Amino acid sequence: MSARSGPRVGSWRRCALCIAWSLCLGLPGCALIHKNGTPYAEISPGQINLADDIHLAREGWPAARWWDRYGDAQLDALIEQALADAPTMLIARTRVAQAKSDVELVRAGSSLQVVAQASLNREHVSANGFLRAYSMNIPAIGATGPWYTEGTVGLGASLNVDIWGKQRAQVAAALGVSNAQLAETSAVELEISTDVAQLYYGIQTTYQLIDLLNESHEVAVFSVETHNARAVRGLEPQTQFEEARAQQLAIERQIVSAQDQIRQFRESLRALVGAGPNGLPPIEPVALPRPQAALPATLSYELLARRPDLQAMRWYVEASFDRIDAAKAAFYPSFDIKAFFGFNALHLADLFTHASRQIELIPGLSLPIFDGGQLNANLSGAREGSNLLIEQYNQAVLNAVRDVAQTGSSLQALDAETGLQQQRIESVAFARDSVEAHYQRGLTSRLAALQARQPVIAEQMTLLTLNAQMLGQEIALTKALGGGYRADPPVELKPR
């Protein structure tokens, strides 16, 4: 036993020395990095903040279920239905599952691979070939030619030795993309929930608008009847009747348009939720909620952790750094080991005998020397792709700050306008109440008392529009602040 093992150990040592010697000779001759490029810088924290003149009465970030603050069971049910069944959500979840599969696929490439192998080969040996002796019938050497049935069965294995971290970098890049897809799913959830809320309150606003239009329509109908009665009796010209009639028709047209607007909102909501023709529950009229918008005192890096779209872009940037590492590692030698253990015989009857055992162990070395610039082009492309992502990320951060600033500023202005409009309604209502009082005392006609309501109704419509705009901007601010999303505080991006 020892006599046979000695030469084997020596042969293994010689093999290892040959590999080491080849490595020492090959390293100086491998392809050189010429196009690494210069990484771009991340946006500075000072640019992630608001101007000093933008602030609201309340401070803070949105809650996880931000829509609960409105206390509307109908809205809660619609958002939950949308987050469960919306086609856009299903697409986002499918992308996450696909990204996870990609991670497993890349990770599997760096693991030990073992396969079962079996083959059957019926061959005719050539009399003029290297194995011509086997084309004859010479039992002494095992030749019973020219036809043979060769069989092979066994286990094959292969392993890539990731010395320079190329495969680890590829796995890290795939993980980065997977994490980005998860963050994008949260961004889709935020998009859907805010869109549902905007459409829902668009319907509620239109309901209230129709109520005000109906009040105005009652006044217009009475005015038409009154002027018609007077015109028939010759107490006033027909012109006043036609003017009153035109005003009534204009109000009726507005009612028809508002009713159609509700149908449009419902169809948009149905498509967003992913409901069938009868899958959307009835939406009953409710009062618009009071504004509850809040704005953080400072944004800085907290905004990056609160915005799922920014988190997704950061993960894409991180993944691009790993791709750069993989592109750099491709310049260095790669090692792999292949092995086989099984049986091989020219005669199937001898296949599973001790003498038919076959053992192979093949260490491999691949060293790039001249590649026509392919590796440098690959590295340059990875670097430029990373720089592009960094610039897109920086611009996205600036856009996020702009969104918060614009919606916050709009809310400030709308709040001031709403206060002024309420005062205006009080002034107009005073004139209406005065005419009503005169009517109660018999000092003016009922028509004059009813017509005095029209300016108040018009101003109430304006106030309704302002309240709806405030609610819409409040929801937009919730979206700009990232909704209820919260990731770990981001660390500084460090290009490699």
TrEMBL record:
Subcellular location field: Cell membrane; Membrane
Main location: membrane
Keywords of the record: Lipoprotein, Membrane, Palmitate, Signal, Transmembrane, Transmembrane beta strand
Lipid bilayer topology: Lipid-anchor
Pfam families: OEP
InterPro entries: MdtP/NodT-like (IPR010131), OMP_efflux (IPR003423)
UniProt family annotation: Belongs to the outer membrane factor (OMF) (TC 1.B.17) family.
Designated name of the protein: MdtP family multidrug efflux transporter outer membrane subunit
Source organism of this protein record: Paraburkholderia podalyriae
